[in-house]
Every structure is written in C-alpha cells, then in structure tokens.
Design brief:
The protein is α/β, with parallel strands linked by helices. It is built from 12 helices and 17 strands. It has helices at 72-75, 80-96, 111-120, 153-165, 193-205, 220-225, 239-248, 256-264, 270-293, 308-317, 322-328, 331-336; strands at 3-10, 19-27, 30-36, 45-56, 58-63, 99-104, 128-130, 136-137, 148-149, 170-174, 209-214, 230-233, 251-254, 296-299, 354-357, 373-376, 379-383. Helix 4 runs parallel beside helix 5 (193-205), helix 7 (239-248) crosses helix 9 and helix 8 packs antiparallel against helix 9. The structure holds zinc ion.
Amino acid sequence: MAKYIKCGTLIDATGAGLARNKLLVVEGDRIAAVLDQADTPLGAEVIDLGGYTVMPGMIDCHEHLSLDVGDEAAQMSQPVPYLSMIAVVNAEKILRAGITTMRDVGEKYFIDVEIKRGIEAGLIKGPRLLTSGHPLIRTGGHAHFLGRETDGVSDMRKAVREQLKQGVDLIKIMVSGGMSTKGSLPDSQEFSDEEIFACIDEARRNGRKVAAHLHGGPGLKPAVAAGVHTVEHGILFTEEDVKLVAESGTWLITTVGVGEVAELDPATPPHYREKASRSNANGLQVRKWAKQYGVKVAVGNDTNHCRMDMEARALVEAGWSPMEALQALTIRGAEVCGMAERTGTLEAGKLADIIAVDGDPLTDLAALRSVPFVMKAGVVEFSEIGQAR
Ligand SMILES: [Zn+2]
C-alpha cells in the first residue's frame, strides 16, 4: 500500500527552490509521485512531516565504519570482533543521522563487505554501502595499520585483485602520505607513477573506479593522468593542482570536519594534531579555488561521523550557496557513487530515500544535525514524529 508523506517544506535537491505543501507518494521502495497535499486520497496512510523540512537522504562519500577520530593505529590493533562491533554501532548512527548512502573507503578484514551483507540481509541497520575493502598502501605508508601493503607493479595488480575477489565496489589507494600516521608526510607521493597506473588500470579493466587518498603533492598528476575517479581530501592542493582537477573532471571529496576535530581532540596523537593544524589553514583556499574553477565536489565525514553540517558549512564559507551545498550532500554524492539515476533527489521514479530535518537548513545548516525521520528505499528506519522530543 502506498504511503503519503506530507512535507512542510520540500527541498528536492534538483536545484529547484523550496516547495510548500507537497505530498510524496511512496510505493514499495520508490517515489511514485510528487503531488500537492490537496490531492491526498481519503483514507490514505499519511506520514505527517508538516512541521519539518523534507529532503533526500544524504550521501557520505568518504567514511570508515570501524574508525573514530583519535589514535587510528591503536584502534586498528583491536581484534576483529571488537572492530566489527564498532562498525555496527557506527553504521546505525550514520543512518540515524540521515545518511542513506555511504562509500566506505577503507576497512581492515573486509569488515565493510560483511557489514553491507548484514544490512542487506536486514540483520543490522545502516546506510546503503559502497565498499572498497583494504586501502592499498605502500609498505610502511599512510595507514599501513589499516590496509594492504603492496610494492611494485605486479603486487599492486594482485592487491587490487584480492579486493575484487571479496566483491568490493571500488578500489582505494593511498597516493599521498597522511595526517594520522606517525612519520607520514601528507604531501609526499607514496607510490611510484607506475604503481599508481597499475592500480587504476587493473580496477578499470574490472569495471571498478578508484578513489585516491591525496592531500596534495606530486602524486596528483600521475593519478589524474591514469584516470582516477575521485581525489580525497585535497587539503594541501595548490592553485595549479585545483585547475588540473577541474580540467580533468575528477571529483574532489572534501573532508573538512575530520581535520578540524582532529586538531582539537585530546584523544588524537600529537603528531596528527600538529599536521592537521598546519594543513587546515590551507583548506579554505583550496575550496575557494575549487568553486572558482568549477571542480566537481562532494563531501565525506571520514572518521568524524554524522557531521554533514560541518561539511556543508565548509562549502558555504568558500562560496557555495546553501542550496549548492545541500546538493553536494545529496545529488553530487549520488553522482560520485554512480547512483544519480536512483537516489540523491526527490523525484518520481527514484528510490524513496527521504529524511526530515527540524528547521530550515538553507538558513541554518545546524538543522542538518536534527533528523527526526529517516526512510531508506521506502522503509521507515527511524522516526520520532509524533513523539515528545
Ligand atoms: Zn579516510
């Protein structure tokens, strides 16, 4: 039976403005129609979101379910069952925050692949997942405690194949060094040009795209030349780097909140805090260039789970309109995930990934933190509607 969702304010994320008094008709897992509330049939099953802003479920393009902000190496030394519990808890939290689709860009032990299986089997709650398995890392490179260490072209191809064997949706490679790994330089190139090419070529031949961890430095050029799909973070990019990303049509996934939180969180090791604080200052300029040169941008919370408001705020600070920022959180993310035909906007024919936020996110992005209703593919996953809050 169809469900009828009364929307106080509707932001469909197509780029159209706000709409009032709309009615979303949900049949099965899809949005069947967008009508006016005056068209509500008698006796219909109505979900009354009249007091809220209704928008598409958000899409987080850079996450790690079993990692939290803090000492990542210490977290990754935990046994598999413990890490799995962390991932289960985070998956539920992330869905509850209104994120209905998520790219997991690196887990140990293929936890992401198994969590995805658990979600799809209905065992646990979580967003629709795209998985990458182990990030590919040069021996001793950034996040070596998390990924598959690999050296040389032939072992790189083998490492990609190992991830494919477990059924991952994309491949993640650590092209540059990183913040959270002691001794790693965020603007160093950790793999040779040949290794980077081998990774992207092996993935492409097998129908997978590659996400490259890349704060900045010389690794950008070979990654773009090889056809990398997304560059993650980009916080140390120069103006020339940003132009290259724009011209190539490569996606930039900004992850601002994690850096800001890591800089201040006492649980974060000193080397991580110090690198974050040196890099954060450059990030705003990178985002301004990205806006100026028309880079395609979507966002990720990374280990700073559920804080889409911070990612949206960071884009608005750099010149995005609030509506463009909300599109970065929704339809742009769907494009990154190859799911723009299925989700990311609220239109007839798309999956019913529908959330309600308390307030107007276009005037106050903090409203994105208050999500009393989450529907994923037509199923009400969480609802506080009609309850005292
Ligand atoms: Zn990450």
